[in-house]
Every structure is written in structure tokens, then in C-alpha cells.
UniProtKB/TrEMBL annotation:
The active site is at K37. Substrate binds at S41, W289, Y382, K512, G544, R628. ATP binds at D54, E117, G118, A119, G120, P210, Y211, V212. The gene is bioD. Mg(2+) binds at T16, D54, E117. CDD domains: DTBS, OAT_like. This is Multifunctional fusion protein. It comes from Pseudodesulfovibrio nedwellii. InterPro entries: Aminotrans_3 (IPR005814), Aminotrans_3_PPA_site (IPR049704), BioA (IPR005815), DTB_synth_BioD (IPR004472), P-loop_NTPase (IPR027417), PyrdxlP-dep_Trfase (IPR015424), PyrdxlP-dep_Trfase_major (IPR015421), PyrdxlP-dep_Trfase_small (IPR015422). PANTHER family: ADENOSYLMETHIONINE-8-AMINO-7-OXONONANOATE AMINOTRANSFERASE. Pyridoxal 5'-phosphate binds at G349, S350, D483, P545, T546. Belongs to the class-III pyridoxal-phosphate-dependent aminotransferase family. BioA subfamily. Its EC number is 2.6.1.62, 6.3.3.3. The modification N6-(pyridoxal phosphate)lysine is found at K512.
Length: 664
């Protein structure tokens, strides 16, 4: 949909006549244009139902082009002359921004260009906590602001520009009107208003329409808006060069520089949806690698980011501290299992794992056990892409071959054989115990992902196994590091996956969902015993990233954890688990499917051989969903706000893709 959204700095600023005149100007250039009024309050009762006066103005200005009458261009009409939210409420209705946007798109179909006129100003409420700005965002059109030239207009104009830009929208320009008779006293003021607004920055003044009365009125408006067309910025066309540049010069994760897998260009995101460059929407089943748990563009997270940005985006953490970090660390300490009382703020999951490993080694050094420098882990794990983290990833599907000269050799037990939900077989720990004992003098810590091995294979193992590892660590006085980066914050149905086993680690890593998918941040938490041992005899923990404790990320993380505590994540996750079981269960019977498993909001369809990622991806995009399979796995980890209907659409897309052999 091409066009403009027309809003005002206030109500009664001449917005409708500007819209009508602009419509006429576009029609005069042979474009099939239409002006639309999504919500009209203050309608007049007539024999033909409610009359929308604004639409009548469009009809009057554009009469020669619509000999059979102006098309229906209003979605909601209300009699009371008041704000749309109140008018709708009095009519016993609610206005849904999503529906409204769809209705506008329907009316606009087949037109070259549409002008969508708001009601009142940008912050006018539509009900349900949504405002005209939400509708503007959904329609994603450049915005023209109409301002009445009077005392106070500069303030209103600048506030409106700020608000619109804060939503990621473009301000195409400003139209100044004069709705009252000028006096000799205010001539100077009016002239200065226009100059100030024009000189403020990069918003062009498209027209300065003088006060007019009588017969000339429409003609004057049309003349001014016709001239305005020359100043209006062109619609930016999709740039093919961008995609060529992306392919030729930008590294994307795990793909060839010579023959990269194609990328899909995203325009924006909101809720559970990824909006592509062409305006089509995908239901996000990945939560952007599992982190956007509250969905995208959550108002509370955006607000936290904006207000922190206004105060302080970053300051070094060495020797300085700040409220966002203090608040977040206090929340993390309260939320995580008892005893994890010291918080290290890292800038990514991998870095938090490096910090955890360094803590374990420094702990042993400080304790005089200098020969304890190895890590004990199980196969099938994933802990990140930096060197220390890579060394404890699965040695086969990790990158050990490639980096064998660089990576420290760690000690591996087999993948836990006993699965989640099965009856526990105590023998499943035997081999791990044997390997541990054979190396026990060298081991500083055990590191594992609790219950769910994520990127290493979406594998769920028995809680009793984790309890066994805790016991093993205690018997040999080594530390237990739990990597909760993927599992933390409710993903598995418990706030932290270690709660399935009633196990508390000595060191714990969190990341991914920590900022609700807004920004990069992770944390390594340790017990007081670990922290104090490292620091005895003047020791200090040797890690300090440049962006440690970034205030912006901390403020957003705090907002994300607040939502988690206030919203009923447990109900959300349990509902999703139920829906996933229902909608993915049928895949079990399809040929090529080796296993279907669900835990919390994690749904996995394991195939009997590696899948064709590109072909599946194309198939999913056609079905309006976003999933990124890897290896033999087609899986989902959706935002917690996903609905039943959306979950079913994910399940149906996976079923159809496999049924149509898109995985081969
Ligand atoms: C994603 C992940 C990491 C790495 O986090 P990054 O932020 O990508 O560095 C580490 N451990 C686990 C379990 C993960 O899922």
C-alpha cells in the first residue's frame, strides 16, 4: 500500500480539507488515489444512515473524478463528537487496530495511492490502550502533519514529530493552516511560527495555507496542495542493490561467503509477527533464537529503552555503577535459586560462559588446587561460539576438528541416555561416574545445560541425571556450572530448568530471554563461597568487557523480568505446551519422522536424516511462518504471547512441509 497518513497537531486544524485537497492534487496527476477516514466521530443522522462529514469533503474536492459518487471510505462511524475510544465505548463497540488496518487495506486495494486521515492528533486513544500511533505503525505510511498556525503550535508540532519518529515512522512533511482571521497583532507570531518549524530540522513545510473564506476556499487549498506535491519526498523503492550487498559483503551465521543461503529482508516486527519488506507477515516460531519471549515491540520494553536512552545509554562499569545495573542484579538474585548471590554482567551468552569457566579456574587456583584446570561435561551440549565455550560443546557436531590446535581438551561423558519423561535408569549415570573418577584430580567444574540440550540437538534428559551430577560434584568438591541461557526464564515450564531437579548450581549463566529479545545481555551468577574464595588473599576476578553492565540493556532486562513476574508466564507456557502437543503430535505418523517431543514451549520434530533447510524455509515462508530448522531438527520455540490459533498454524505448516517432502 502506497500513500500517506495525515494527522494533526490537534483537533480542528484543517486536516480534512488538507487531505481532500491533496487527494484532488494526486487525482489531477492521473493517479488512482483515494482518501480514507478509518474512524469518524461526530457523524450526523440522516435518512441514509450516519453521514461522515470528512468523507463528504473528500467527495466535494474530488467530484469530477467520482461521477457515480465517492466510494465507502469510512470503517467506523459514530454519532458523538468525541474521541474515538469514547465514541466507540458509547456505541458499545471496541476498535481493534489490527482489524482497522485490515479494513483500510481492503478499501485501498487496487489504488495507486491512499491518504489515510487520522482523528485528532497522533496520541488520540482508540481504546484497548491503543492510540492513533498504533494504527499509523500498522499501516506504515509516511506521515504528513497538519498544524494550525496559532500560539502553541511550535510545541505541538515538535512533540508530534518526536512521537511519530519514536515509533519508527517517517515524517514526510508539515502543512501549516490558518483557521482563524489573522490580526495585525499576531502576523509576526504566525510568520515566526512557520520560520521556526521550517528551520527546526529536516521536516519540510509542504504548504503554508493562508486564512480563506467563501467561494475561493477549495481552490486555494487545492492550489497549495498541488504545489506541495513537488516538495513531497518520493516513495523509496525497494533497493535491489541492498540484497546484492548483503550477499556479497555481510557474514550471516553459519553460511558460506561464496555460496550463502539466501536471506530474507525484514522491515519491522511486532507481537508474534515478523513483517517482511513486501509487507507480508510471518508468525515467528523461533522468538529470534529463543529470546523474544514477550513478543516484539512490547510497549513496556520499548518504554524502558526510551527513557533509559534519554538518561544514559552507557557508562563504563569500572569504578562506576548505576541504578539499572543495581535493580537488575537485585532482581536476578531474588529470582534465581537461593545462594546465587554474586552477579557478573556479561555482554552475551558466550561471554557469560567464558566468565563462568574463568570463575571455576580462578576458584581452584585460589584454593590451591592448581592441577584442577579441566571441565567435565556431557556430549550433545552447546555453550556458545567463543573458545572456552566451544571447548565444552559437543566434540562432533561442535567445531572441535576445526579448532583442535586452539581448544583446550576437556573431559566428555556420553549424552545422558535417560530421557525426560521416561522412568529413571540409575545405570545411565554409570559411565559418567567412571570417566569422572578416572580424571577427578584434573577437574575444576562440571558444566552442563540443565534438562534441555538446546542447539546441540533439542534433547530432553531426566532430572534425576542432573541430581546425580550435583552429587558427583559434591563428592569430589568440584563446582557445578549450569548454563541456563536457553532454558532460563520459564522456557521449560519451570522458571529455571534446574528446578526440575531441585538442584542449585555453584555458578549459573543466563542470557537469551534476559532482555526479552531487545538487546544483548547475559549474566553469570555465583555463590558467595565461590566469589569469596576467588577474592581471598587479594584475588580479583579477571574479566571486564567494555560494555559490561550496559545501562540500556539492564533497564530493558529489568522491564522484561518485571513482565515475567507480573504476567502469568506459567499459564502461558503450560497452555503452549498443551497446544504444541496437540498440533505437533500428528507429525509422528509421517514418513521420515523419527521423534516428536514437547517440553514447555519447546516443540521438536526430529527427522531420521538431516533436512533441506532452504527448501523447508521457502515452504514455511509461503505458509506465513518463520522457522529455522537445523540438522535433523524442525523445532519451534515461540514467544510466550503466541495464541492457540497461531500455534496451530505453526503445527500445520510443519505437518504440510513434511507431508509434501519439503525436507528432502
Ligand atoms: C545461545 C546459547 C549460548 C550462547 O549465547 P550467545 O548469546 O549466542 O553467545 C550459550 N549456551 C546456551 C545453552 C545457549 O543456548
Amino acid at each position: 500500500m502506497n500513500g500517506y497518513f495525515i494527522t494533526g497537531t490537534d483537533t480542528d486544524v484543517g486536516k480534512t480539507c488538507v487531505t481532500a485537497a491533496l487527494l484532488r492534487a494526486f487525482l489531477d496527476t492521473n493517479q488512482s488515489a483515494l482518501a480514507i477516514k478509518p474512524v469518524q466521530s461526530g457523524c450526523i443522522e440522516s435518512t441514509h444512515g450516519l453521514r461522515a462529514e470528512d468523507v463528504e469533503a473528500y467527495a466535494r474536492f474530488s467530484a469530477p473524478y467520482f461521477p457515480d459518487g465517492y466510494p465507502e471510505a469510512c470503517c467506523h462511524k459514530y454519532r458523538p463528537a468525541c474521541s474515538p475510544h469514547l465514541a466507540a465505548e458509547m456505541a458499545g463497540e471496541t476498535v481493534s487496530v489490527d482489524e482497522l488496518a485490515d479494513q483500510v487495506r481492503n478499501i485501498a486495494a487496487d489504488r495507486d495511492l491512499v491518504l489515510v486521515e487520522g482523528a485528532g492528533g497522533a496520541a488520540v486513544p482508540l481504546g484497548n490502550g491503543q492510540t492513533m500511533l498504533d494504527l499509523m505503525q500498522r499501516l506504515d505510511l509516511p506521515v504528513i502533519i497538519v498544524a494550525d498556525n496559532k500560539l502553541g503550535v511550535i510545541n505541538h508540532a515538535l512533540m508530534t514529530i518526536e512521537m511519530i519518529r519514536g515509533c519508527g515512522l517517517t515524517v514526510a512533511g508539515m502543512v501549516i493552516t490558518n483557521t482563524s482571521t489573522p490580526t495585525t497583532d499576531d502576523a509576526h507570531l504566525r510568520q515566526n511560527n512557520v520560520e521556526t518549524i521550517a528551520g527546526w530540522g529536516d521536516v519540510p513545510v509542504l504548504a503554508d495555507i493562508p486564512y480563506v473564506e467563501g467561494a475561493d476556499f477549495d481552490t486555494v487549498f487545492i492550489q497549495h496542495m498541488t504545489s506541495a506535491l513537488d516538495i513531497l519526498p518520493e516513495f523509496s523503492s525497494q533497493n535491489v542493490d541492498d540484497m546484492d550487498f548483503d550477499r556479497d559483503h555481510i557474514w550471516h551465521p553459519y553460511t558460506s561467503a561464496l555460496d550463502p543461503l539466501p536471506t530474507v529482508k525484514v522491515r519491522s516486527t511486532r507481537g508474534t509477527r515478523i513483517v517482511l519488506e513486501d509487507g507480508s507477515e510471518l508468525i515467528d516460531g523461533m522468538a529470534s533464537w529463543w529470546c523474544a519471549i514477550h513478543g516484539y515491540a512490547n510497549p513496556a520494553l520499548n518504554k524502558a529503552a526510551r527513557s533509559q536512552l534519554g538518561r544514559m545509554s552507557h557508562v563504563m562499569f569500572g569504578g562506576l555503577t548505576h541504578e539499572p545495573a543495581i535493580n537488575l542484579c537485585r532482581t536476578l538474585r531474588d529470582m534465581t535459586p537461593d545462594g546465587l548471590d554474586h552477579v557478573f554482567l556479561a555482554d552475551s551468552g558466550s561471554v557469560s560462559v567464558e566468565a563462568a569457566i574463568k570463575m571455576a579456574l580462578q576458584y581452584m587456583q585460589a584454593d590451591g588446587q592448581t592441577e584442577r584446570t579441566k571441565l567435565f561435561t556431557v556430549r550433545g551440549g552447546y555453550h556458545g561460539d567463543t573458545c572456552g565455550a566451544m571447548s565444552v560443546c559437543d566434540p562432533d557436531n561442535g567445531m572441535h576438528q576445526l579448532f583442535s590446535g586452539l581448544l583446550p581438551q576437556q573431559i566428555f561423558a556420553p549424552r545422558p541416555a535417560c530421557r525426560f519423561g521416561e522412568e529413571y535408569d540409575p545405570a545411565s549415570l554409570d559411565e559418567a561416574r567412571r570417566i569422572f573418577k578416572a580424571n577427578s584430580q584434573k577437574i575444576a567444574a562440571i558444566i552442563v545445560e540443565p534438562i534441555v540440550q538446546g542447539a546441540g540437538g533439542m534433547y530432553f534428559y531426566h532430572p534425576e541425571y542432573l541430581r546425580g551430577l550435583r552429587k558427583l560434584a559434591d563428592e569430589h568438591d568440584v563446582l557445578l556450572i549450569l548454563d541456563e541461557i536457553a532454558t532460563g526464564f520459564g522456557r521449560t515450564g519451570k522458571l529455571f530448568a534446574c528446578e526440575w531437579s531441585d538442584v542449585t548450581p555453584d555458578i549459573m549463566c543466563v542470557g537469551k530471554a534476559l532482555t526479552g529479545g531487545t538487546m544483548t545481555l547475559a549474566a553469570t551468577l555465583a555463590t558467595t563461597h565461590v566469589a569469596h574464595t576467588i577474592s581471598k588473599n587479594g584475588g580479583v576476578f579477571m574479566h571486564g568487557p567494555t560494555f559490561m553492565g550496559n545501562p540500556l540493556a539492564c533497564a530493558v532486562a529489568q522491564a522484561s523480568l518485571t513482565i515475567l513476574q507480573q504476567k502469568n508466564w506459567k499459564t502461558q507456557v503450560h497452555d503452549i505446551e498443551h497446544w504444541l502437543k496437540e498440533s505437533f503430535g500428528s507429525c509422528r505418523t509421517l514418513p521420515g519422522v523419527a521423534d516428536v517431543r514437547v517440553l514447555g514451549t519447546i516443540g521438536v520434530v526430529e527427522m531420521d536424516r538431516p533436512v533441506n533447510v532452504q527448501s523447508l524455509q521457502d515452504c514455511f515462508i509461503k505458509r506465513g511462518v518463520w522457522l529455522r530448522p537445523f540438522g535433523k531438527l524442525i523445532y519451534v520455540m515461540p514467544p510466550y504471547i503466541i495464541t492457540r490459533e497461531e500455534t496451530e498454524r505453526l503445527g500445520a505448516a510443519v505437518y504440510d512441509a513434511i507431508a509434501n517432502n519439503a525436507h528432502i
